[in-house]
Design a protein that fits this description.
Number of helices: 11
Mean pLDDT: 93
Shape: elongated
Order of helices and strands: HEHEEEEHHHHHEEEEEHHEHHE
Distance between the termini: 56 Å
Radius of gyration: 22 Å
Low-confidence stretches: none
Strand content: 15-25%
Helix content: 40-55%
Strand order of the largest sheet: 6-9-10-11
Oligomer: single chain
Structural class: alpha+beta
Largest sheet: 4 strands, mixed
Length: 261
Amino acid sequence: MRPAEPTDEQRLRAGLLRGGERSMITGLWALRRHGLRQLPEPDDVHLLVPHEREVTSSGFALVERTTRLPTALTRDGLPVAPVHRAVLDGARRIRDFDAVQAMLAEAVQRKRCTPEQLDRELSRGSQRGSALPRRALQALLGGAESVAEADAWEIWKLSGLPAAEWNVSVFDREGGYISKPDAWCEDVAFAWEIDSRSYHEDGDHFAATLARNARYSAAGIICLQTLPMRLRTEPGKVITELRDTYATACARPRPPVTCRP
């Protein structure tokens, strides 16, 4: 009603008015409402509406009629789909694998949903556009919790080494906490840490990293540290380092350490 472009809030409310009763926002705008940030810039207002309603898309309102209407959650006064549904509704319409992986990883890392919830939703929902989210989900189901860990998971698979455990806590013989490595080989007590330079060089984080490495050394654990960017720029070299470090771990007696989920 004013001579100006509608604000984002006005577009969301207008979309819900078109969707009508029991409609809700899903996809990228819903994820924004849930507080997630590792997302492409939202555009159309993606709406879920009951299948029996004869409502169609129009303008910026993308209407999806569904027989599997979830229970809406209220975020900042508007009804939105739960995270596990919204993130997959958004991911099915994105053709950039890195963007899809970042979305799913953030949802899991920030504990807004579990990999198992995503897996169930992906199996029950439309298979259109599901190839990229299904590929991205494999690393999360394997225990990865971030994009860097998902890249590491792919590299580990290519290395041919025995399966690793991801994000398990490691303790010494007295039960003292040592660390929670990104990847852990229980059979030979080998830890792999994906260490961001910008994070670990910063003040307290640098001191914490040194203390962690000292605990690894004192417990007899062999640890390999890798920068995240090398997982993509030098995958062959990283694989060689993994194999060599694993061989070194195999060549010495296994220290008396244990891991727990």
